[in-house]
Amino acid sequence: MLSPAVTAYSVVCATGYGQAVLLDALRERRESLSVNDFTAEPLPTWIGRVPGLEDPRWQLPLALAPWDCRNNRLAWAGLNTDGFAAAVAAARERHGAQRVALVMGTSTAAIDATESVYRLQDAPGGIPPLLLQPELHTPHSLGAFVQRALGLEGPAFTIATACSSSAKVFCQAERLLRVGVCDAVVVGGVDTLCKSVLYGFASLELLSAEPCRPFAVDRRGLNIGEAAGFALLERAGAPLKLMGYGESSDAHHMSAPHPEGLGARLAMEQALSRAGRAPEDIQYINLHGTATPKNDAVEAALVARMFPAATRASSTKGWTGHTLGAAGCLEAIVTLLALRTGLVPGILNTTRLDEECGPQIRIENSTADIRLAMSNSFGFGGSNCVLLFGREAA
After folding, report:
1. Residue 186 near residue 130, CB atoms below 8 Å
2. End-to-end CA gap in the chain
3. Catalytic residue (choose from 13, 69, 194, 322)
4. Cα 56 from chain centroid?
5. What is the mean pLDDT of the chain?
6. What does each C-alpha distance from 61 to 57, 68, 86, 149, 189 come to in angstroms?
7. Per-residue pLDDT for 393 more than 90?
8. Which of the residue ranges 37-46, 49-58, 117-126 would you say has the lowest mean pLDDT?
9. How far apart are CA 67 and CA 174, in angstroms?
10. What angle do CA 223, 225, 228 make, to 5 degrees?
11. What does residue 31 show for φ and ψ, rounded to 5 degrees?
């Protein structure tokens, strides 16, 4: 495969705005989750809410007003963090707007705006005109908004495969670059908190009433979060590379993983094969690790079987919550930060690991010279995606 360079990236999540803030939260093991205050009706859980997203500074400019909703405001915040929009503008200047593609991952798009329309149907004064903009109420709302905001004219795609959505954007980007469709690709994932998702996961009895504890013997379920993550991929120009990827489908169950992790294993093996690497070459794995009973047990057993004891592995959802369609990109960025800085995050909130966990899964943070790292994303419906990132020697 091509092994494109990751020349820029940005992140906004429950820890705050930017790579540096996320890195500090990981390093200091700082709690970022909070008691649910998003739903007016009682829903006893914790959430990973982005602080200050409602501030006027994230209001969309007039030219982008037809896309105004919480999800696109979060995307706007991500684009204007870590100098990402400027990096894309420079790439657009280098390659031309028609040669920069866009691939976005999301599981809910702007469904919070659609929810608002239903809630306001019988309200005095009716539905505000801005909420009736057709641009909002489509699965491609996010992609259309980001393409317009960045002034891009190349191919634009939206991938919606549940919680693997914004991991799969990296795979699509590599293919677009390899076959010459474009010279640069903006990839990303954005999902905001919305009532459909919160109550939906509650109905599945998957939410924890406490801060989530990935891979803990006493784990009780997940916490929903929100995030925006973006990356710019080009053929060259940076030491951080996408070295391999794997995609698979369990075809087993709508909301439960294959009990033996067959699809997840296939995706891991594909990623290693594309990179020409073996399991013992991997120094860190950012696990999917949602803190739900079945997911963690299957993933832990799989890692214990496949990787040597020296491999470090952890889930970082205790810091951010499970950000659904944004999780793949968010956790890819955590993996890139580990490669760049040598900080290997552990697991927040967990004190005792499940017996399914092998020596690979570590609770405490550590530091190491990480050169090759993996990021796992497994979605409802058995949609699996595994990314392999590497750092070239200076």
Report:
1. no
2. 22
3. 322
4. 25
5. 94
6. 10, 9, 17, 10, 21
7. no
8. 117-126
9. 28
10. 155
11. -70, 130
Marked catalytic residue, from 163, 171, 194, 357: 163
Locate tokens 């649910």: which residue?
A: 36
Backbone angles phi, psi at 188, to 5 degrees: -175, 175
pLDDT digits (tens, 9 = 90+) for 230-278: 999 999 999 999 999 999 988 766 656 777 778 999 999 999 999 999 9
Give the model confidence (pLDDT) of 135-190 as tens digits: 788 889 999 999 999 999 999 999 999 999 999 999 999 999 999 999 999 999 99
CATH code for the domain in which residue 91 is found: 3.40.47.10
Number of domains in the chain: 1
User: Tokens at residue 236, please?
Assistant: 């060259």
Rg (CA), the chain: 20
Q: How far is CA 347 from the centre of its chain?
A: 17
User: What is the model's pLDDT at position 254?
Assistant: 62
List 13, 69, 212, 288, catalytic entry = 288
Alpha helix ranges (H) inside 151-206: 165-178, 195-203
Query: Domain containing 84: what range?
Result: 5-391
Calpha distance 63→77 (Å, rounded): 16
Indicate whether this model's pTM tops 0.85: yes
- Residue 288 annotated to the active site: yes
